[in-house]
Amino acid sequence: MLCSCCVKLIEIEFEKAGINTVNIRVGFAIVEFDPTINNLQNIEQILAQHGMGLIKSRDQKIVEQIKKAVIELIHHSNNINSLLRKSDYLVEKLSMSYQQLSKIFSKHEPITLEKYIIQNKIERIKELIDIDDYSLSEIAYMMDYSSVQYLSNQFKKETGISVSEYKKSDKSIKRTLDSLSMPDIR
Q1: How distant, in Å, are the alpha carbons of 8, 62, 142 from that of 56?
Q2: What's the whole-model pTM score?
Q3: Does one domain contain both 77 and 41?
Q4: C-beta atoms surrounding 26 within 10 Å
Q5: Do 65 and 27 contact (CB within 8 A), yes or no?
Q6: Which of 14, 60, 119, 148 suits a disulfide with 55, CB 3.0-4.6 Å?
Q7: How far apart are CA 9 and CA 151, in angstroms?
Q8: How far is the C-alpha of 13 from the C-alpha of 54, rounded, in Å?
Q9: Residue 30 phi, psi (nearest 5)
Q10: Which of 94, 89, 58, 52 is nearest to 74 (CA)?
Q11: Is residue 92 part of a domain?
């Protein structure tokens, strides 16, 4: 569960199945166990119907924590201080070296951690462009790009269109946050 909508969806689905949630939030759920109503297979089935699953290994837990931390920093922090590097934030948040985090992430996801961070930045840039409250120069600073040119080049490389073309488009090239670690099909 990577967003509040996912949390609400799972809460509703569990409720429909008669599963009482004790605590549920992004990336985490505790349910009351009643063997007459729920079992692990039932819970897994409900999650799978919505593209989610149980985290069973330590590495999978770390991957989910990485995704959550990246989303927090890039999409929800409202932090316009670009001096905080993304890698430093992850190292501090998860108490592991960036190399360890990157290795674990790449082992369990079809893309690298660096690529995942870039994809999240691009989606956030699209949001900021759509809001139309910031200049491209301000967005470049907020998203930790050294220049507007660097942001523009990476935007085109990742989306296949320029920032100008995106501004003129119908904005249908946005991707959901939970799809970012999946291959991009344009």
Answers
A1: 22, 11, 36
A2: 0.72
A3: no
A4: 17
A5: yes
A6: 60
A7: 35
A8: 15
A9: -120, 130
A10: 89
A11: yes
